[in-house]
Amino acid sequence: MISRQFAPVLLLLTVLTACQSSYHLAQQSANRIEVDSVTARADPDLTGFLQPYRQKLDQTMNEVLARSTGPIEKGQPNGPLNDLLTDALLQQATQKYGKPIDVSHLNFGGIRNNLPAGNITIGGVYEVMPFDNKLVVLTLTGDMLMQLLNHFADGNKLVVGGVRATIHDGKVQSATLTNGRTIQPNETYTVAMSDYVAEGGDNSGFLKNPVRRDDINYLIRDALIDYFRQQGKSGQPITPTTDGRITIK
Q1: pLDDT tens digits, residue range 107-137?
Q2: Which pTM does this prediction carry?
Q3: Domain 59-248 is classified in which CATH homologous superfamily?
Q4: Rg value, the chain, Cα
């Protein structure tokens, strides 16, 4: 039996439930609203608050690291930017790792912009490498290294330092390490790359079980910034060139 004190509450719930309407979407429409500096005026208080931070950011991003005698562009299968970035990564990774590294690798799709002729700035490097990918050094068997080279050779997206390769029908026909080592199936080799690829990005899941993995607390972008800064201090401009390390037959 329902207590008299709850009867009014139950009656009210019954009435409210009975009065509820059933709703459904009858139509929909959309309009494009353009927002720019004219239609959306800056808030002066907010602008004033952010100004010191913006000045500091602009100062950092506009720092000139080095100079180039011409535009440095990526390409397939070769490009001056391909060679420059992988050689820079190989050098900086070796310094950080403290031991020789055989090969460096970069994801072709991760190189998002070219570098201009003239000043190379920190902001310019951010445009080339906008992602916070960290440096990883993998120790791979010769078989795994060849699998890596073949995986990215398909589609002419092989961007490497420390190795020269000849590709035929999307497969590596021959590969030679520039440090004098030859690739033997059961020997081991060190490869500097991004954590994105090391963790299976770009369908490279076969790299998840290397002989050894060393995570370096060093952003690849920072490695490139450090490299260009060193080049700038040398006083010599960078001359864009490619050594034809990838050959297509």
Answers
A1: 999 999 999 999 999 999 999 999 999 999 9
A2: 0.80
A3: 5'-Nucleotidase, C-terminal domain (3.90.780.10)
A4: 28
